[in-house]
Amino acid sequence: MRILLLFLLTISFNILAQSPCSSPKAHEFDFWIGSWTVYQSGTDKIVGYNNIVPVADGCGIQENWKSVDGSNVGTSLNKFTFRKGKWQQFWIDNSGLTLELEGNYADNKMTMTGNIPAFGNNLAMSNKISWFKNADGTVRQLWEQSQDDGKTWTVVFDGLYRK
């Protein structure tokens, strides 16, 4: 009986010790967590508010966006997927937009990319979103799109997050 109990305790300890959510990789994007006022980069113009919170016991983060006039609201779920070795984001908003992005964190910057297939009269669109972890505690989010497979990029959004 003692051996069985010791065996079960050892297995339980190993399972808890190997939780993927305790890995530093699962927390690379934690710099984005917080309640933010978002400004158009380089200006004092407020464009929205974003509340980023940890979810699933810290295994991911959820974004809750609202534009300054309340006309655009959206949410995303973000997590590091160990099987892929990449971060993933799934975004939806009240305009009907859905984005599925993936990427990695390096050099104080999270960059994720994803494609929207052609639909009706709309061309296929590549998306690249980067979040810069700034030394002063702010975060810059730069969203770019390409209609030529990444040869040229157009800025869709350039925001500065301040707590």
Gyration radius, rounded: 19 Å
Q: Kindly report the name of the CATH homologous superfamily.
A: Calycin beta-barrel core domain
Oligomer: single chain
Taken together, the total number of domains comes to: 1
In round numbers, the mean pLDDT is 91
Name of the level-1 CATH class: Mainly Beta
CA distance, first residue to last residue: 55 Å
Tell me the overall shape. Answer: globular
CATH architecture: Beta Barrel
Which strand order do you get reading across the main beta sheet? 1-2-3-4-5-6-7-8-9-10
Count of DSSP helices? 1
Q: What percent of the residues sit in helical stretches (DSSP H or I)?
A: under 10%
Number of strand segments? 10
Q: What is the CATH topology classification name? A: Lipocalin
Secondary-structure element series: HEEEEEEEEEE
The fraction of residues assigned to DSSP E strands is over 45%
What is the makeup of the main sheet? 10 strands, antiparallel, barrel
Residue windows where pLDDT falls under 50 for at least 5 positions:
4-16
Helix vs. strand class: mainly beta
